[in-house]
Amino acid sequence: MTAKSIAIIGECMVELSGQPFTAMQQNYGGDSMNTAIYLKKLAGNEVNVNYVSAMGTDPLSRALIEKWQAHHINTDNVLLSHNKQPGLYMIQNDVSGERTFQYWRSDSAAKYLVQHTDFKKVLTSLAEVDAIYLSGISLAILAEQDCHTLLSHLALLKQQGIKIIYDSNYRPALWSSKMHCHLANNKAYALADLALVTFDDEAQLWGDSNVAQCTERLHQQGAHEVVVKLGADGCQYSKKHLDNSISVELFNTVAVEKVIDTTAAGDSFNAGFLAQWLTEQPIKQCAQAGNLLAAQVIQKRGAIVEIDIATIKHTIKA
Question: Carbohydrate kinase PfkB domain location, by residue (predicted)?
């Protein structure tokens, strides 16, 4: 079987974790890269994962790109900017595993991806993949015009038969205004063959009072398949059919003994789900993979952790 290919658009940053003015740990992360790495870990040779972003030409940028390549991520579409550098964030976790962030990314290379002189080459490359994945963060870091330019290009790619996958991943501080956020998300949902969203994010952005309201709205906005992530309660999958009826399935997750760090919970769920969805496996198997992968990740500290791939694969096929 020919391997599927997916392009993941976003920003990966330098990560500092620990308490201020102590020996902090240096790493890297970002929602899109977290998903890219876990997807490649789980899918292996069945899915080619291409990262689309912009980085600097400084030693730190080059070291980051080498880290991604070590995970077998294709970086041919990571554009280099001679006058920009990668973004930086600091993360701290409380006793329950919840995290707080501070960011230094307002002038990062990734913010200027669409303006890069080689971006047209990226668009040509995107026409060759099976699917394109991006998040609300991928859009929010761009200037407003660049955001809508990217969405317009994605609309043309969708017309060519390329699947569009979107996670709203709402971070209010990144958006220039709520109006811009609503407009961009409306366009993204309308393009989405698959929307992978977190209920808490959607409720904050749109005021949804329950999952049913959230699901109905997303389908009305144009999303074809919808997965609403519910944390410890698992996830809900829904699909809009040709007769406009909507089928709904709820999938529970496994109990977790102790939550250490929720940093990449949603990102890793997306990766697990996509590893199966891209290869056209049953939805139950997609949801199982997402839930199992996220359950492993939140029991360790950090965005990118070691996972037990064999156990996940054995469980979903049992």
Answer: 4-305
Burial of 85 from C-beta contacts in 10 A (0-12 / 13-18 / 19+) = middle
pTM of full prediction above 0.90: yes
Using one digit for the tens of pLDDT, what is the confidence trace for 235-270? Answer: 999 999 999 999 999 999 988 888 888 878 999 999
User: How confident is the model over 158-201, as pLDDT tens digits?
Assistant: 999 999 999 999 999 999 999 999 999 999 999 999 999 999 99
State how far the Cα of 169 lies from the Cα of 52, in Å rounded to an integer.
Answer: 18
Of 167, 201, 261, 267, which one is the catalytic site residue?
Answer: 267
What one-letter code names the amino acid at 125? S
CA distance 175 to 172: 6
Q: At what angle do helices 119-126 and 144-159 cross, to 10 degrees?
A: 30
Whether 167 is catalytic is: no
CB 219 within 8 A of CB 239: no
Using CA atoms, how far residue 77 sits from 9, 183, 196, in Å, is 10, 27, 24
3-state DSSP: the chain helix, strand, coil percent, rounded to 5? 45, 25, 35
Instruction: For Cα atoms 307, 104, 10, give the angle at the middle one, nearest 5 degrees.
Output: 50
